[in-house]
TrEMBL record:
<feature type="binding site">
    <location>
        <position position="545"/>
    </location>
    <ligand>
        <name>Mg(2+)</name>
    </ligand>
</feature>
<feature type="binding site">
    <location>
        <position position="489"/>
    </location>
    <ligand>
        <name>substrate</name>
    </ligand>
</feature>
<keyword id="KW-0046">Antibiotic resistance</keyword>
<dbReference type="InterPro" id="IPR015943">
    <property type="entry name" value="WD40/YVTN_repeat-like_dom_sf"/>
</dbReference>
<dbReference type="InterPro" id="IPR051344">
    <property type="entry name" value="Vgb"/>
</dbReference>
<protein>
    <recommendedName>
        <fullName>Virginiamycin B lyase</fullName>
        <ecNumber>4.2.99.-</ecNumber>
    </recommendedName>
</protein>
<comment type="similarity">
    <text>Belongs to the Vgb family.</text>
</comment>
<comment type="function">
    <text>Inactivates the type B streptogramin antibiotics by linearizing the lactone ring at the ester linkage, generating a free phenylglycine carboxylate and converting the threonyl moiety into 2-amino-butenoic acid.</text>
</comment>
<dbReference type="InterPro" id="IPR013094">
    <property type="entry name" value="AB_hydrolase_3"/>
</dbReference>
<dbReference type="Pfam" id="PF07859">
    <property type="entry name" value="Abhydrolase_3"/>
</dbReference>
<comment type="subunit">
    <text>Monomer.</text>
</comment>
<dbReference type="Pfam" id="PF24684">
    <property type="entry name" value="Vgb_lyase"/>
</dbReference>
<keyword id="KW-0479">Metal-binding</keyword>
<feature type="binding site">
    <location>
        <position position="529"/>
    </location>
    <ligand>
        <name>Mg(2+)</name>
    </ligand>
</feature>
<dbReference type="InterPro" id="IPR029058">
    <property type="entry name" value="AB_hydrolase_fold"/>
</dbReference>
<dbReference type="InterPro" id="IPR011217">
    <property type="entry name" value="Vgb_bact"/>
</dbReference>
<keyword id="KW-0460">Magnesium</keyword>
Amino acid sequence: MNITTVPATPAQAAAVRDSLGAALAVSLPADAEVSGDWVRAPGAGDGAVVYVHGGGFAHTMPEAERVMAYRLSKATGRPVLRVNYRLAPAHPYPAALEDVLTAWQGVLDQGIPASKAVLFGESAGATLVLSALLEIKRTGGTPPGAAVAVSPVTDLALTGASLSADDGKDVMSRAVLEAIGAQYLAGAPADQAPQSPLYGELRGLPPLLIAAGADEVLLDDARRFAEAAEAAGVSVCLDVHEGMPHAFHLSDRGDVLLDRMSRWLADPVREFTIGTPEAGPYALTEGPDGALWCTLTHQGAIARRGTDGSLTVHPVGADTGPTILAQGPDGSLWFTQYRAHRIARITVEGTVTSFTPPTTGGGPFGIAAGPDGAMWFTLSGADRLGRITTDGDITEYPAPGAFPAAITAGPDGAMWFTLNQGNAIGRITMDGRTTACPLPTEAAAPVGITAGPDDALWFVEIGAGQIGRITVDGELTEYPLPDRETRPHAITTGPDGALWFSEWGRGRVGRITVDGRITSYDLPRPDCEPHGIAHHDGALWCALETGSLARIEVP
């Protein structure tokens, strides 16, 4: 779980409690532009924030809410729509939810791209936001690009432990929540979705930022929902603000939350958990079914992440060490089993077959489809190369150097591969003739290699901290990285015509253009150990050995 503890001193926490009443009486700044229920701060651009206010489903304070809308607009640089939903008890569930859904559809009808729109809710409004996301998904609607829920009630059955543990510490109480729930539900079940979002099917929800105060009675509502969303494959961050009560965001302390929200929305990286840190996600590729497939090398499994966020894990042998996988010409995925010394195939339905190369203990590592309708692989421990047909017939060839690692098809009808300990780039033709081109830098230790968009081969030098380029004629160029200790590992061509690579030693993903310009993106943690990288669904995805996949939005 990606939990961020937001620190606060006791004095800051006390100041928030003392100022909550005054916060509701703040005047709307003179430079705010108000049009109906739209509020725009100076400089706000395109996109939208759909703001669903709190108030126990029963109360509204339009002027205070417009101030909050102004703050949201200023923080996000987007115009904000304040949703003026119907209130209980005159209009119990599902009236307010219907109004939020209508407001969301209205935003889409204005031509605002869903990817540039955010749903933001506070307290009861946060509940309505999460309920709306469930209904949008259930009905096949278009979801927003992201959603933010501050202090949501996710379980109107009130089973969270913090309801009792924090009772008396918070400005909210269990008794008040019981009254709110009874009035809002008006007989609807408290332990069902969408009214209680915790009980819903959360798979496929957009990225979520959930925030709560550490002293809130609703802390466990936020925590349990975040945990359930993460388990369902949703990208979710939970921020817990030390010493803060319910509605802390309405005070000056809310600026901390709004700054965090602004940075989170601008972050091109989203993280999706697919296993425990012990699972070891290693390599990944898009499958013939449009899903993202990944090896779990320590778990001995292959994982499939569907376009709807669904996760399926196929065991392939606990001690086999599935390593690199690639799409084959037969509609299956092929992968190496480094520890078991086998080549294996998995169909999109999950049926696995495996084949043993003639050389025992060869340590198969890289694998890629060749131009001849077969799969080509490296036997890194035996300094050999292999070719396997879709029927399982295997032919081996001596490698022209030590420890052949990654392999890829080149633009010249040959296969190209890195010689990690031979410090060279190798080439093999379809009839088995091999050549090697030594690298200028000693101990460069090349690993990943891919065909670039410029009819050249691009590779990473994990030992030298460099990116390399070699033409089919053997012309070599090396590009030193700004941080030579970054240990680049895998490389692929992105949807933007640049090369993207994992920086295993620094927890980053790098990008290099074909003319050598280099940029870098931080991943969630510097110790996340990024390995495989692939282009999928218009973005770059990276396997983090700590148990997650990272999705990087391409600028």
